[in-house]
Every structure is written in structure tokens, then in C-alpha cells.
Amino acid sequence: IALAAVSVLLCAMPSPSSSLQWCSDALHNLVGYSDAALSSYLHHIALQSKSYHGILTVLNEGGVTPVSDNRNNELEGFARNLHDKCHAGAKKKTASERSRLTNADWMKRAKNYDLIVDDDDDADDNIGNSSHRAAQKKEHTSKSTI
Fold first, then answer.
1. pTM score, two decimals?
2. How far apart are CA 86 and CA 47, in angstroms?
């Protein structure tokens, strides 16, 4: 099976652990074996690199050779797919998103909130007063014993 076909089958895996698993599986299909240390290292390189060229450089310098005859295309395809999987969903923030909110901004946002009106304010005042309850209990018990 060509690497391109395998990468199409395993395309939608967004989490880092799934991209690491994809790397391990695709590496096995590419070179005929999978080494946990190598796939972890390539995954780390992919997360750190700004383009697939960094991954491709590591593969070439490391002497990774695919089992098929189409060496350059498969290595480049693997590097592209790995980079895309590791950077899927990554969105660059615009300057306005990076800017910090000022106090005036927080005040504008606070205007959207209102206080909750509690109609039972008076009924709750005596609930926490233990001395008041104790006095009522004492009166009740003293009346019932008379």
C-alpha cells in the first residue's frame, strides 16, 4: 500500500496522541518497521517545525529509506502529512485577539450583567440566628411542661 493511500485512510485524527499513533503507523508503512523512539522523535520535530521541510531534513539526515522505490515522493508525503496532522486546527491569532483587555473593556462587558432580585430577604434573616431559635425552643418547652 502506498503511503498516500494510508494517509488518506487515517486522515481525521486531531489529538496529539492520535497524531503520534498516526506517525507510528505511517512510519511502519514507510520503512517496514516502527520504532517508538523514532516515531516519538519525529512527532516532536513535527510539533516544533514551522513546515514539513524540518521533518524531511531529519528523515534524510537520519538515513531513513522507504521500502518502495519512490523514495523522495514518499518521504516528502510522509513529512507533509505528519506536519499537517500535528498542526491541524492550529490558528494564528490576529493582532486584535492578542491584545489585552483594558479596564474600559471590562466595564463595557460588565454592563451586560444585572443583579438578581431576591424577594425573600426578610425571611432569611432569622434562619441563621441560633440564639433566637434557642429562645423560641426554651419558651416552647417551658410552656408545655406547665
1. 0.50
2. 6
